[in-house]
Every structure is written in structure tokens, then in C-alpha cells.
Amino acid sequence: MESTTFNEKGNISIHTENIFPIIKKFLYSDHEIFLRELVSNAVDATQKIKRLASIGEYTGELGDLKIKVSVDKDAKTITISDRGLGLTAEEIKKYINQIAFSGALEFVEKYKDQGVERGAIIGQFGLGFYSAFMVAESVEIISRSYQDAPAARWVCDGSTEFEITGAEKEDRGTDIILHVAPDSEEFLDSFRLKSILEKYGRFLPVEVEFEGEVINETEPIWTKNPTDLTDEDYLSFYEKLYPFSEKPLFWIHLNVDYPFNLTGILYFPKIKNELQLSREKIQLYSRQVFITDEVKDVVPDFLMLLHGVIDSPDIPLNVSRSFLQADANVKKINGYITRKVGDKLVELFKADRAAYEEKFGDIGLFVKYGMISDEKFYDKTKDIVLLKSAGDAPYATLDEYREKTQATQLDKDDNLVWLYTTDAAKQDAYIQSAVSRGYDVLVLDTIIDPHFIGKLEQKLEKTSFKRVDADSLDKLIDKGVTVESILTDDEKKTLKELFESVAGQAYTVDVQPLSADELPVVLTQNEFMRRMNDMSKAGGQPSFFGNMPMSYNLIVNANHPSILRVKNAGDQGLAKQLVDLALLSQGLLSGAGLTEFIKRTVAGL
Fold first, then answer.
1. Kind of pairing, strands 77-82 and 136-144?
2. Which residues are documented as binding site for ATP?
3. Which residues bind ATP (predicted)?
4. What is the pLDDT of residues 266-303, one digit of tens each?
5. pTM across the whole model
């Protein structure tokens, strides 16, 4: 077909002569974005022609709607071709030359009464096309409209000047031809282009072909009805997203269309005892176009422990689509996702508590992190967060554990004291001593537990947490009972001096009258100082308390039979043995000290 004979030259209508350097250097931080923008525009044009056909405004044959991307290394060109709506010469002048206009927005406005939603069109920014100039020294558009109009060719070399002429083009649609600049020839590599297409377009709703291969799945499972999907569908999709990860524990299918549009799938992975906020992220899409995996503005920090996909056209982006803008919709979406996650956990707990308990070891860190971070999530999950005691005791909710300890662990002021361990193996002697007194000891050994404990102390009335090795049991749960000492003050002073000479200056020695069934020597750490230290480690940030050396108190039980033997015989060897046992219980005995302790123990057998 012969081209129409018209020829026009002019200047692009922009507000600054420097628009192209701005686009190239500042508007888009990552140059590979050009391919996402241009393919997205092709998807827009294709969706539009399909929509016009569905409402009877276009009656011709749709034919093959596949978008094709090709590269010619010799000619140094990249071409993006579609069989969508196409453009007339007048439309090219309007939409391409006048940057202030957006064809997508005008299309929506024109056909909104026929049910076309703004979100149905990916391209919302007239600047999207101009991303081509990040990598091209000149750009051609060859387009033929679905309307009865001749084909047109537009050419621009990156300056503000353009030329429009007639063109030869049989098919409806548009070819965008990029003449790649010398400093961007990396994009002429087929492998590089394919990797970009797969990154941003692997779930585009229109087939995209590159070098004879369709690179995308047009109907990902988050666009489908959950009732039409099996567990295997969800697991298979997860494997596509995270091919080297363990299977997820369970998932949530998000689907809401009011007051905003949001679809997606969030998976609960097995969460290790560390905050993996950056290893495998939630992916954000807009109408199946990948936008980013930096979703901190869309979901709360604690939800970033989850994996999966969120797709919403209602999350506002800046013109480069590369950064999120915090607005009312984002806050609503944030709250909705938080609520849905909480609802799912409550549902699992109520439907099958045994199965929920089996999973809690893997999701407990996430639940606690959420309770600390978000008040609404705390309210939603406070009845289903589980506590685990040392030993074989079953999990308990907060209310169940309160009932369990109410009779035994009230202090003299009717405050409930919950004992806990951060290392059940290392602190076993303290745990056994507590258990022998009828007390229960919680295991709180995750990285988030120092903060979780603080949160519960704020929320639970007249309840405090004390680590089982923070003091003697009589001091940890002070019931107001005075234990009489069988030693005189002079005898206690003598014992104190003896143990100070054995222990050295690193420990503060205190001789106290304790129950005879408590340990003979107890090594303790101040609860406040130790907790501040733990919290600074959990937060990954140094603090005043985190930088201070830990101090230990050596409590000598004046009423224990072994201590009476030390006192009666002035037995420094036995005193040393008891001190070393206390140090060993805290993991503070090593090297030569541990070797000497073993030798003495063996010699005494």
C-alpha cells in the first residue's frame, strides 16, 4: 500500500527545552524501564481495541493480537509491534507531541459510560512513551489506526523537533522502532532484553512474543476465582515466584473491588529466627505489569515477612511508576491487607487448633512482630498468639496461661509474674529449680521476644515478665515471706569474703538467706539491663545499654547444706566448685577454667 503524501515538521509542545535530558537522567532511575513502558503501551492499545470490539464500536476482525518485540543488532534497533488501536497522524501529534495529554486517560473519559474503568488501562502517564529516549538516539513510530485513515510515520531524534510523513503499513496497530544510542548498546543483547521482558511482563494480560517465544502467562492465578483453584495451583505458582524456597505453610487470596481494586496472593513461609525482610519480597503489580518489590509503603513492615503478589491499579505511582506515593488509598490497602491476614490466622486457629499449633513454631515470629508493630493486628491476634512452656507442656493462649499461673505466681501485691527462659538448655538448672517450686517457665527465645515481652507488659494488667535467672526465685516472685538465715551476720560476712576471693572482681557477691531447696550459688543478671541489651541486639542498632558490659551478681544461698559445709570447713575448693557450676549454667565457663573444672570433678568421683 502506498503511503499518503503528507509531510509536516514542527516542534514538540513541551514546557522546557531540556525535557529529554531530564527524562534520561532523572525521571527514570533505571534505564531498563523503557521496555516495560513501551510494552505496557502496546498492551493498552490492544486492550482498547478489544474493548471497542466488545461494545460494537469496532466491527472488523481482531485477528492475532500478539505483541512482538524484536532486536536487530546490525541495524542497532529494537522494535515493539502491536495490533491494537493504532494512531492517526492527528492522534500522534496530539498524544505524542503534546506531553501534557494522556491518550489512556482521554480514552477512559470518553468511554466511561460504557463501563471502561480507569484501572483497565495501564498507561496513565503521557510520559511513558518518552522513556524510549533513555536508550535511543532517535525513535520512529509507524502506526495505522483502526479508523479509516492513512498510516503515518513520526520521527524524532531526541531534540524538540519532529517530522510526520505518510507511511506504508498494511496492518492495524503500531510499530515503535528505537535506534539505540551508542551508550545503550547493552540492550541490543537478546538475553538482556528477554530477561527484562520476563521481569516486568511475565504476567501481562496480552501475549508478548520475543524471538518466536511467548514469554508471559496471561492469566496468572491471582486473576482467577479462588473456587476454581486447587492447592496444587497455589503451590505451583509459589514455586514459579520462589523456585528455591520451601513450600509455604498456607496462603491468602486477596480479592476486593471496593472501595479500591486489589487482587493478589500472600503466602506464609516458614519464618526462621531472624527478620528476613529483604531476601524474598512481595511483588507489586499494576494490572499484571510488574512495578516493584519494594512494597514498604503498601504493606506494614511485619507483613514484609510474607511472600507473594499484590496487584492494584489504585496504588498511585509517580510518572515513572517506580515509586509509590503515600495517599489515602495506600493507607486503606495497607489496613485491608493487615485485616485479611489477621482474619486468616483467626480462621485457622478456630477451624483446627491442633494444625495451627503445629504451624506456630514457623509463624510465631511473624505473629509477634505484627502484634508489636500494629495495634489493630494486636487486637485481632491477642486471643490466638500462643505461649510455650519449657518441657512438654502444650501451647497456651494468653488467657489460658493466665489461668494456669494465677494460683501459683502471684506476688505479695497480687501482680502476676511470668518467668521465662531465653535458652532452655543453658538455663536448665534455673528452670528445674523453678519447676520444683511449682512455677512454670515460658520459652521466649526468638529475636523478637524482648520487644514482644515489653508489648505484653504494656497490655496485660498487673503482669510482668522476669527471666528465670534474673534473681533468686524468692526475689523474682516476692510473696512477702521472710526466710530466716541460720547464719549470723559475722558468718555471712566471712562467707562473702571467701566467695569474693574465689570468684574474683568480675562478680558482685551477695549472701542471702534463701530456701534450702534453691541452688547453693546462683548467678544472676539484672532484668532491666539484660533486657535492654537483648532489645538493642534484636533491633540491630547499638544503644547506650547495648554498649555497656553485662554485670553479674553471685548470690550465695546462706541456708543451703553445701554452703554450710563451705562455711564450717572454710573449704575454698568446694566454693570454687559451686561458683564454677553457676558460671557453667550461664555459659561463662570456658577455656582453661572449664578444663580445670572438669579435672576437679573427675578427681572427686
1. unpaired
2. 37, 41, 82, 102-103, 124-129, 174, 321
3. 37, 41, 82, 102-103, 124-129, 174, 321
4. 999 988 766 554 455 899 898 899 988 878 777 888 88
5. 0.78
